[in-house]
Amino acid sequence: MSVLVTVLSVLMLNSVTSGRKPLIDEVQPDEEPRFRLSDIFGTMREGILIVSQDMLVTASNAAAAKAFMRNGGSLNDKRLSEILRDFRLHKAFEAAIKLKSSSEVRVEVIGEESRIFDVLVSPLNLSETYSAIGVFYEVTRVERLERVRQEFLSNISHELRTPLTSILAFVETLEEGAIDDEKNNRRFLEVIRKNANRMHLLIQDISELSSIEAGNVKMRPEELNARKMAGEIISSLSALAARYEVTLSNNIPENTSLKADAVRLQQMLTNLVENAIKFNRRGGTVKILSELQDDRYILRVVDTGEGISREHMQRIFERFYRIDKARSREIGGTGLGLAIVKHLARLHGGEVTVSSAPGEGTTFSIFLPKH
Questions:
Q1: CB under 8 Å to 334, separation ≥6 — which residues?
Q2: DSSP sequence for 312-356
Q3: Where are the chain's structural domains?
Q4: Within a 13 Å sphere around the CA of 103, how many CA atoms are in the beta-carbon half?
Q5: Quick one: fold of 2-138?
């Protein structure tokens, strides 16, 4: 933004020091203009407002009109207070005009979606009296990414701190003499192992998700027997299902084939089936089904659990989002499994969706293109 303002300042300064009274659409008489400031402003993605001493907008560009005019039209000749009701912004324009001082403020524009701008306001001598120019640089996306980063780091710290605290506590207990307690030392070591394994899985999932989001995971589609893969997943999770007293069912028809990356599809289905087991009812069922719909394959994982409310369904594929945090930690989830499934489905050119209602179970559907 500073480079942009420097360029504008040079243009303005050249006009002012030449002794002329420049206008935004300045054209020299009897000659083809090399450029006009309005043309320069029009190509900028940053919004530009020039405000007079009586706080009227005397010039603006298309980016500013798009950002601040909800119903279209021009910003020119409108009072600044009609366009943006922000006390700090008004003070910045007043200071630029009356005190000839520059300042930078942050403005949030509330509309259908909130937008955040860093605004540099500077004095501008385009005629015999001073005006002020405001350059609006949108930082909405940067701000959102920063919030996501901070939330991500906060969640990682919390998720690692919990098992680490438990490990340190039991190590300290063993060091203080419990290592000779034949009745409990094995149990303490088992708790340490369990929490260390939880940390390992979390780091593994974080690394996996980072690789996917960085574009370092490549898909290698091949023809697969969907029923055979579902059978292998059920076999690998049979011990977990028995522990939770859940019945697994492979309802994919014989000889059902589709084209996908074998490793990644197995990873997606395993994540979904494992969640369906852990969050099911005792005596519940989990079914794996398939369907061919127009030009798409659909793989569904259906459970008879407690279901998910609409409020949670909107956020369930977010990193670290949990419906029942206490239960999730008890069963050892990292909170990243569904986020990984979402990204892997998109890498296949497909998507994953969820449908559910409280008390009626949940269905996760993976949609894959038919190549």
A1: 159, 198, 201, 202, 205
A2: HHTTTTSTT--SSHHHHHHHT--S-HHHHHHHHHHHTT-EEEEEE
A3: 2-138, 140-216, 219-371
A4: 17
A5: Beta-Lactamase (3.30.450)
319, 266 Cβ separation under 8 angstroms: no
Radius of gyration for the alpha carbons in the chain, expressed in angstroms and rounded: 31
Angle at 346 between CA 341 and CA 347, to 5 degrees: 100
Residue 150 CB coordination number (10 Å): 10
CATH 1.10.287.130 fits 140-216, yes or no: yes
Q: Is the pTM of this model over 0.70?
A: no
Of 266, 276, 274, the residue nearest 363 (C-alpha): 276
Its sign, for the CA torsion 203, 208, 213, 215, is: positive
Fold of 219-371: Heat Shock Protein 90 (3.30.565)
Residue 29: which residues within 8 A CB-CB, separation 6 or more?
Answer: none
Burial label, 177 (beta-carbon count in 10 A; 0-12, 13-18, 19+): exposed
Residue 210 or 117, more confident: 117
Number of residues assigned to the chain? 371
Q: Which residue has the tokens 């000659």?
A: 31
Q: How many CA atoms lie within 13 A of 224 on its CB side?
A: 25
The 10s digit of each residue's pLDDT in 130-179 is: 889 999 999 988 888 787 777 777 777 777 787 888 888 888 888 888 88
